[in-house]
Amino acid sequence: MRRKRIAILCLALAFGVVLSACTSAAPPSQNPFPVGVARDELLYESKEDFNSVEVYRQKGRLVINAKSEAEFFDGAQFLVETTGSPTPEDVTVQWTTLGGGTEKTENNDRILAEISVRENGTVIFDRKINFLKKAFEAVEDVLKKRSK
Questions:
Q1: What per-residue string of b and e applies to 88-97 under the rule 16 or more CB within 10 Å gives b?
Q2: pLDDT in tens, the chain (148 residues)
Q3: How does DSSP classify residue 132?
Q4: Contact of 55 with 63, CB cutoff 8 Å
Q5: Out of 35, 60, 71, 95, which residue is the most buried by the measure of CB atoms under 10 Å away?
């Protein structure tokens, strides 16, 4: 029981360190969205709490932007070459919890997004995104430093 309390305390402390160390804006040289998009190009959008996935249709490609209002994710952009004209039905975003469940519960938010794009029935893009990856990496780093 005591070890469990110490582990929870360490995680809480590490989480606090992460919160205080994060900054809200990436430097311009690290812009996670180098390809510009226009709102009228928006093909598909999916939101879950503070996180979102936006898919834009441009000539010959899709631009996929993963964004978060939380400090634990800087954003990511993916370019997918297309030969046709994808529709919103060709895009799916499946939100899951860390445990793999699709149901959001009070203590288990859906923070993973699996983005899938099909063209002519064939999957041309399939990627999982962890919107809390930086937080877990920071906690890992703190725990490694404490164990030395």
A1: eebbebebbb
A2: 545 544 454 444 444 433 333 333 444 447 788 999 999 999 999 999 889 999 999 999 999 999 998 887 889 999 999 998 999 999 999 999 877 777 776 666 778 899 999 999 999 999 999 887 666 666 677 777 777 7
A3: T
A4: yes
A5: 95
Amino acid type, 79 = L
Distances (CA, A) of 25 to 13, 69, 141: 23, 11, 22
* Residues forming beta bridges with residue 115, ordered by sequence position: 93, 127
Between β-strands 42-48 and 122-130, what pairing exists: parallel, antiparallel or unpaired? unpaired
Cα torsion 70, 90, 32, 99: sign: positive
Whether this model's pTM surpasses 0.90: no
Task: Determine contact, residues 125/80, Cβ cutoff 8 Å.
Answer: yes
CA distance linking residue 148 with residue 143, whole number of Å: 9
